[in-house]
Design brief:
Blueprint lengths: L2 H11 L6 H11 L6 H10 L3
Protein name: DUF982 domain-containing protein
C-alpha cells in the first residue's frame, strides 16, 4: 500500500470528517510507525490540509 492509498482509505472509512491530526494518527498506525506524539506531529505536517 502506498501513502496515497493509505490516506484515501482512512478518509473513505471515516464515519465523519477527520482532522489532519486524526488522519495522521491513523496513517502512522496503518504504515507501522506507531502513534507516538512526535511521529504523529511529523506526519501531520506532511499531509495536505
Amino acid at each position: 500500500m502506498n501513502q496515497r492509498q493509505a490516506v484515501l482509505g482512512i478518509l473513505r472509512d471515516a464515519a465523519s470528517p477527520v482532522s489532519t491530526a486524526e488522519c495522521a494518527a491513523k496513517f502512522s498506525q496503518a504504515v507501522g510507525l506507531g502513534n507516538e506524539a512526535e511521529i504523529v506531529d511529523q506526519v501531520s505536517r506532511k499531509l495536505p490540509s
